[in-house]
Amino acid sequence: TIKQEFKGIDEHDHLVMSTDLDGRLPAVPLGSTVQIKPYKEIHQYSRNFIISSSSCNYTITSPDGDVQTRSYQWRQSIIFQTCPYDEAGWAGATLTTQQLSVDQIFVMFDANNHLIRYAMSNKIGPIHSSLLEQNPCFSGRHGCDINAVCTPGEGVRFSCECTAGFAGDGRYCHDIDECRETPSVCGPNAVCSNQPGSLRCECSAGFVFASDGKTCVEENRPVDHCQRGSHDCDVPQRALCRYTGGSAYICSCLPGFEGNGRGCREREKTRCEQQRASAVADSDVPFSFRPRPTVGRYVPRCDERGAYEPTQCHQSIGQCWCVDANGQEVPNTRTGPHSSPPLCIDQAVTPAPIGPTPRPDVQPIAPGAYLLFAQSGKIEHVPLDGYIMRREEAKPLLHVPDRVVIAVAYDCVEKMVYWTDITGPAISKASLTGGDIYVCSSSELQSPEGIAIDHVARLLFWTDSTRDTIEVSKLDGSHRRVLFDTDLVNPRPIVTNPAYGRLYWADWNRDGPKIEMSNMDGTGRVVLVKDNLALPNGLTFDYENQQLCWADAGTRKVECMDPHRQLRRNIVEGIQYPFALVSFGRNLYYTDWRREAVVAVDRHLGKETEEFLPQKRSRLYGITTTATQCPQVYNYCADNGGCSHLCLPRLGGLSCRCPDATDGQCEEKVL
Q1: In the 8-state DSSP scheme, what is residue 268?
Q2: Rounded to the nearest 10 degrees, how much is the dihedral formed by the CA atoms of 247, 248, 252, 254?
Q3: Of the candidates 253, 364, 350, 256, which has an alpha carbon nearest to the alpha carbon of residue 302?
């Protein structure tokens, strides 16, 4: 039984909910594969409730080849407050049954937390209650057809436009029969069937889709060699055969064994596995791959490679802590009962070191250029070969469980990666060459979303979209000072230009989005761009060419401009939902929420050239690069400019500024 209470969408488009779970789940043996057959959901809905039901069949194949077929059934009831507006399609609705294929559900609430609409949508972003009350597109009093999109204009103006696959004036839209208008649209050996707003192509009997997913070719009967036993994998006690379609399969060794899957031998136990086996034997607990710790006895957790898991817990006393690759506790990471687990960095089994090495708290990466990007609770890195992403070598740099990492930045001097997380909230850093996570700032933060570094003046800048501030501090978080706390609504990306002592940031305020510039000391604030903007999420600065570039999720464009001469030009149009952007040579790289990918854009050619899809698909956030060497730039604060506390560069000089919390021994001056 699952009970969920939905509390609305926050400013980051996260659906906030509370969940209560009760019941049991069927056990699945370790190493098994589960295949779920396609299924349908039936939804019945009325004015203030939705009932859905479904059932599906699935098979569980254990490591020894035993196959079980099971079925799963469920019913779901969704109850919500009656819509306060008399919208067409809601008032007086009768119980209706539909078969749905849900891609995204868009839930809209008004200022009193009343649900206004529950519908399919691709729009992402917060909706201001003032717009809900004023414009018919948001209040529901627009009269557009159910297969039309209502586009708000100024004040109460709006327009209706039929969606793709439909035709009409927007008030009334009828389905377009693409199969009749273009009989050959599906190609040879295929049958076209019209669907509401689209069409479906199905291969004729005896034909199947080719690898391109479009062309129908003669069917070759697939052979599941794993199920038939006609494979060359090692015996089931040591290896697993996994069917991958057609006549293909993959052999892999089971945990505790090593080899290529066709020949597996028992792997020598690692230090973690030996310690775990000893603890289990002493506790008289039957051995399994991941036994539960017994009361009064600490049993270490090992991953499938036999390495220590980064977070270790003693269940009987309710304490957790971080460990290094040797299983030794990392100081100052232990948490007590009823506390969240510590933020521990993932480890890997490494050979015994020869000579002095850095502390193994971060998996070090080889010198070179990389893309670093945030994906919820981790930061991944992708090596760059010139401008080409070496996708097969991508892997996590560090894990920060139970955190939502938003922005990342890189200090080329000390080779440190900095990031913001909105769940702490906190601003933290870690070295690419090893070491602990260091928290730079965690007090008086609410939603830090953008972060930037001046590697010359050794300064850290960030935006807070809840406090509506832009702040600065030293790289260790000391000498903190608020630069701006007015005329900000939703500040997010922020970048620096150390050579000119400039600061740039974007505010995606839906009522007045803008990109601004100031000196790093807070003087000379001006609006650079305010026209033809919608959701300027990503911002980056190209030191070499002195170009400021941004990605806009509303206009679906990437644009660049010379901030000195204010010459603006389009780079690429028709992108989907960019979040963050970084410049590297002739390329721009951005993260996309809809595609859940890192996308490369060639600025000279004005087109996308490559994309990288992480193995785990979810929204990607901030992105930055690790340059092989620092840009050769200089400003007046390279040696702190003779200031006692903060040295803040500006065009043609510097300002000595005091932090907001000062001991009275600080002197401010302009040089």
Answers
A1: P
A2: -40
A3: 256
